[in-house]
Amino acid sequence: MPEDPPGAIDRLCTDAVRDSPASPYDAWRELSATHPEAVQLGVGFPFTDAFPTEELAAATNEILRKEPEALQYGGSEAADSLPGAIADHVGRRGLAVGADDLIVTGGASRAIDTIADVFLEPGRVVFTEEATFPSAVTYFRDHGAAVAGCALDREGLDVAALGDDLARRERTGEDLPTLLYTIPTFQNPTGTTLPEKRREALLDLATEYDFAILEDDAYGALRYDGESVPPLAAMDRERPGPDRVIHVGTAAKTIAPGVRIGWVIAPEAVSEEIERRHAGAANSFVRSAVARYLAEESFEERVAKLCESYRSRRDHMLEALEGEMPSHIGWTEPDGGFFVWVTLPDGIDAEAMLPTAAAAGVIYMPGSAFYPNEGGENRLRISFSTGSPAETERAVAALARTIESA
Ligand SMILES: Cc1ncc(COP(=O)(O)O)c(C=O)c1O
């Protein structure tokens, strides 16, 4: 390939694009390509056998034969039943909504980006957990917003520390957030879940300091143990005063990422704006096929099956960690979701250690990939969602050996 000529088009990209920093993802991507034999614990993918391929094939076939208008602008009647099926699913999570209260989106990612369109611009601040889902940080920065991290502990967002930070900012005249992005249930990357009391305290802070909350519930339905905790949006609705939580969900982890179906449930005052920005992106053919599939197997039936499988994968990984890890290593024990968050001794850099780990047969995601600013060097995320029991055992043993030698 010839080199880009002087004056190449990338000069014309926005500051946000040109200034985007190198990411630990780059090292991960490169090593994943050069070590295909290593067990991949770095991604948050569902396992491929989990996909309802036969059922989707039958549903797609039926739509094409009986409702070809699904391929037309405007879509088919089948797609109209999708919001109802999602509303039923979300209702079982404790958030009672009608089909009309819900905006179907092209995955949770598009939903987060659209919400950033509505709330963020240069000069505004968005708070995220530290660590958090990196794509969300990219969307926020693309809108010119400053991203500030809030500390996490074993119970998720440290709401008391957040309160101190907000009070300090108010005292010193530093910018207060417009939006706080949180993954309160089975957090990515830590696997932690925010207890109900902290959720209440977080909602108090949002009222006191007047910010909106974006609740990302990507993993919320995948609970393997313990009592469910109500979504922030459900608690918000029970409180006096205007609602300030926007709830986002996705079918990526329960049906398949490739269907690109997510949803937003937003307070009325902003939902029309969010819907308007999403209108042209409605993938009516896929929506029709998924709606047809969900008429045969409900979300709940599907989730029940998946939870059984993921529970055993999670248990397997935790047993392997217990059996293999050196004594000075810590890790979270999630009640749901896909992830275990590992803390190494200070001074061990997980990104620098990745090539050795890959050569030993395991690839993970370095913790710093999830920090909106500095930090996370001695942490790493491993996922139990894709590996077979044998692969998980092999990978955890390789990780333990690598850490020991580091
Ligand atoms: C916290 C979180 N939110 C959103 C997403 C993306 O969801 P979708 O595939 O529906 O865009 C992910 C995927 O990894 C995630 O971890």
Fold topology:
Elements: H1 15-18, H2 24-34, E1 39-40, H3 53-66, H4 77-80, H5 82-92, E2 103-105, H6 107-119, E3 125-130, H7 134-142, E4 146-153, E5 156-157, H8 159-172, E6 179-182, H9 196-209, E7 212-216, H10 232-238, E8 245-250, E9 262-265, H11 268-278, H12 284-296, H13 299-324, E10 330-331, E11 339-343, H14 350-360, E12 362-363, E13 365-366, E14 379-383, H15 389-405
Parallel strand pairs: 1-12, 3-4, 3-6, 6-7, 7-8
Antiparallel strand pairs: 2-9, 4-5, 8-9, 10-11, 11-14, 13-14
Helix pairs in contact: 2-14, 3-12, 6-7, 6-11, 8-9, 13-15, 14-15
The structure holds pyridoxal-5'-phosphate.
Residues 44, 107-109, 133, 183, 188, 216, 218, 250, 252, 257, 262 line the site of pyridoxal-5'-phosphate.
Compact overview of the structure:
With 406 residues, this protein is of the alpha/beta class. The chain contains 15 helices and 14 strands.
What distinguishing features does this structure have?
406 residues; Aspartate Aminotransferase, domain 2; 15 helices; 14 strands; binds pyridoxal-5'-phosphate; PyrdxlP-dep_Trfase; PyrdxlP-dep_Trfase_major; pyridoxal phosphate
